[in-house]
């Protein structure tokens, strides 16, 4: 590239100047500027290498990024980035601790709830709840604690008893057009409250759509 530049300069000198000294002078000046530029690039690359960069262009790129971010130097920018990374790490650890604490609180509440079920309704109901299963005689509030509020309730009242049917475990199917189907339910449960009782209990259940 350098040789080609010198050749072109000499050709131009021969065409436009009668005195052949001019091409030599021009070539010398160009060589001086090229040498200065090459030396400047070399020194810049050496500085960049000492600072831990692969080359000067990488240094320039990071310097521009630092200025754009509002910092006076790359060092300030890197320190800020390091502090932000440390803050995020610390926040992540705090969030993880909060999640673990919440999970432990949930486990304690669940253990206490199972203890109360066992005390009030017997070990059979408590064992079924702990395995997320419905059994005959399970109170409605226990079922809804396990599956959430029932849907589409239907009542049937006689002089001796009151029946309520509810659907549980709602879900939607994805249709071919990408939309979701109407709500479907995996289980329908019938609850019965006998005369003189204040508690609805499971009297029957069946699986539905899957």
What does it look like?
There is one protein chain. This protein is an alpha+beta fold. Among the domains are: 72-121; 134-207, no CATH class. The protein has helices at residues 2-16, 21-50, 56-68, 74-121, 123-130, 140-147; strands spanning 151-157, 161-171, 184-194, 201-207. The protein is elongated and about 115 Å long. The model has no long low-confidence stretch (mean pLDDT 81).
Give structural attributes.
single chain; 210 residues; 6 helices; 4 strands; 58% helix
Rg over CA atoms: 41 Å
Question: How would you write the strand order of the largest sheet?
Answer: 1-2-3-4
Which ranges are low-confidence, i.e. pLDDT below 50, for 5 or more consecutive residues? none
**Whole-Å distance between the termini?**
74 Å
Structural class: alpha+beta
Helix coverage percent: 55-70%
Instruction: Describe the sheet with the most strands.
Output: 4 strands, antiparallel
What is the number of E strands? 4
Number of helices: 6
Pattern of helices and strands: HHHHHHEEEE
- Gross geometry: elongated
Compute the average pLDDT.
Answer: 81
Q: Quote the beta fraction.
A: 15-25%
């Amino acid at each position: 590239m350098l040789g080609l530049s010198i050749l072109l300069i000499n050709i131009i000198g021969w065409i436009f100047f009668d005195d052949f000294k001019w091409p030599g002078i021009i070539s010398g000046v160009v060589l001086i500027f090229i040498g200065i530029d090459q030396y400047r690039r070399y020194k810049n690359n050496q500085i960049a290498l000492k600072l831990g960069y692969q080359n000067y262009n990488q240094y320039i790129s990071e310097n521009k990024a630092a200025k754009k971010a509002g910092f006076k130097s790359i060092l300030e920018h890197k320190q800020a980035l390091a502090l932000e990374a440390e803050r995020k790490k610390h926040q992540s650890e705090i969030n993880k601790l909060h999640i673990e604490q919440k999970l432990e609180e949930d486990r304690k509440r669940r253990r206490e709830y199972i203890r109360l079920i066992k005390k009030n309704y017997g070990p059979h109901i408590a064992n079924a709840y702990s395995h997320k299963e419905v059994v005959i005689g399970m109170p409605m509030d226990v079922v809804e604690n396990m599956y959430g509020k029932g849907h589409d309730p239907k009542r049937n009242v006689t002089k001796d008893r009151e029946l309520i049917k509810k659907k549980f475990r709602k879900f939607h199917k994805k249709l071919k057009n990408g939309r979701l189907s109407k709500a479907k339910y995996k289980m329908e449960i019938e609850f019965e409250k006998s005369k003189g009782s204040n508690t609805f209990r499971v009297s029957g259940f069946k699986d539905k759509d899957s």
